Amino acid sequence: MTLVLQNTLTRKKQEFEPIDPKNIGIYVCGPTVYDYAHIGNARPVVAFDMLYRLLRHSYGAEHVKLVANITDIDDKIMKRAAEENKDISEVADYFSQSYSEDMAALLALPPDATPKATETLPEMFAMMETLIEKGHAYEAEGHVLFHVPSMKNYGRLSGNSSDEILAGARIEVAPYKKDPADFVLWKPSSDDQPGWDGPYGRGRPGWHLECSCMIAKHLGKTIDIHAGGLDLVFPHHENEIAQSECAHGVPFARYWIHNGMLQMTGEKMSKSEGNIETVRDLLKSFPGEALRLTLLSAHYRQPLDFNRALVAEQKRRLDRWYRLTAEVEAAEVPETLITALEDDLNTPKALAALEALAKPETAAELKAGANFMGLLTASAAGWFQSAGSDEIFADEVEKLIAERIEARKSGDFSKADDIRDNLTSQGIILEDSATGTGWRRAD
RNA sequence: GGCGCGGUGGCGGAGAGGCUACGCAGCGGAUUGCAAAUCCGUGUACACCAGUUCGAAUCUGGUCCGCGCCUCCA
């Protein structure tokens, strides 16, 4: 069985054939760091982390390179910095750090490189120069603009032609644009705005340019896989293609894969809608693995209506798996799991494959498969008993359990039940078994 | 208006012409001093209307509804 991916570019499921199996490149569009990441931001990270893990498994970890950018210069960061009276680098560094922490809590492997826009300026200047030389870009009133009509097959990723894009579109056309569809590569900064000096005057880059440059710098002119959210198909990815292919004259990315949007009661989750749950807040109520599993419980391309009940459900599933694998060493990763994932990252099918192994005889395979998916990575004791900050301590629980065992031995069940009820009210659940009494923290 | 995606049981969610996944919840039972956990059993589904077919959730046409993108977006 080989990996098959739904390619946005061809609108088909296609067998994945790397350019060079010893050197596979994958790029995932990363965050603009102006606020805490919400759970919708985490969906591509977790989904494509699964792809990264699968590619490492199939081709060898040392032969796969994952690059994800950090956009650390942007008008939203500038706005935030102005509001808080801080330097933009201070805001960007803080949220960049919190982003890495949050994604690590969701068990996403760190990318091999996380380039920042501010570190990629020389490459941006060079690409703009090339584009101007080749007649694909021009300077106007301090801006550098990409001239869309200069590219014959612009729009093939999103299925729009530039005419169609403009028909009924809600854009105000800046007077310095030669064509309404032209987009900004570089824009001027006023004196009170952050800016960088360069060949086109003091200013800052447009949104799309950094990705084109980072990909060329870290992965090459043609890459295997470019991934990101469905909402980036147009204009962001379309414009990346335009910049890169016009500058380099070779195809940009062979496989484009896009994740569907997370929703909140039927509406897309987004900061501008204000209907978000931050990863940071959710982590106060749920373990990272439960959030990860929730994101993996639906296929990455499907919309997923997010709510906390879903996470609680997946938490219970993990509870069951942790019980089953508590004393078990992981075996080989089961082939049924790999087969399911190779079918366009079909994680729900993969989870069903794990459920088929969720019995005592095959617990070792369950553990291996779950580990492969970034699950069951803690110890069972840690999972069930890990202490919250202000909660009852483990040795206190053990002391009360011992008292209760004495009471039960002497037939004083009402005292035994009092102890248990008391613990329950503190969020501790007791489990009597043939071998003794265990405990865990309630959800 | 243009481009695209989708509607599956109480809920989540795969599948894609005949074998009706899987999980959560529910119900019945076992076990337990009582619980918890576990185990066994169990019901309910393919938005609507036509058509193709021996046979349609699955293919075709139409209808309805929902969602995304159309220069802030994961």
Write the layout of secondary structure elements.
Layout: E1 4-7, E2 12-15, E3 24-28, H1 39-59, E4 64-68, H2 75-83, H3 88-105, H4 121-133, E5 137-140, E6 143-146, H5 162-166, E7 183-188, E8 203-205, H6 209-218, E9 223-229, H7 233-248, E10 253-259, E11 262-264, E12 267-268, H8 279-285, H9 288-296, E13 304-305, H10 308-325, H11 335-342, H12 347-355, H13 363-372, H14 380-385, H15 394-409, H16 413-425, E14 428-433, E15 436-441
Parallel strand pairs: 3-4, 3-9, 9-10, 11-13
Antiparallel strand pairs: 1-2, 5-6, 6-7, 7-8, 11-12, 14-15
The protein binds one RNA strand of 74 nucleotides through helix 1, helix 5, helix 7, strand 12 and strand 13.
List keywords for this structure.
443 residues, alpha/beta, Rossmann fold, 4-stranded parallel sheet, RNA-binding
Structure, explained:
The chain is an alpha/beta fold and 443 residues long. The chain has helices spanning 39-59, 75-83, 88-105, 121-133, 162-166, 209-218, 233-248, 279-285, 288-296, 308-325, 335-342, 347-355, 363-372, 380-385, 394-409, 413-425, and strands at residues 4-7, 12-15, 24-28, 64-68, 137-140, 143-146, 183-188, 203-205, 223-229, 253-259, 262-264, 267-268, 304-305, 428-433, 436-441. The chain has three domains: 4-263, Rossmann fold (3-Layer(aba) Sandwich), CATH 3.40.50; 285-384, no CATH class; 390-441, no CATH class. The protein has 16 helices and 15 strands. Strands 4-3-9-10 form a four-stranded parallel sheet, with helices on one face. Strand 14 (428-433) and strand 15 form a beta hairpin. The radius of gyration is 26 Å and the shape is elongated. It binds one RNA strand of 74 nucleotides through helix 1, helix 5, helix 7, strand 12 and strand 13.
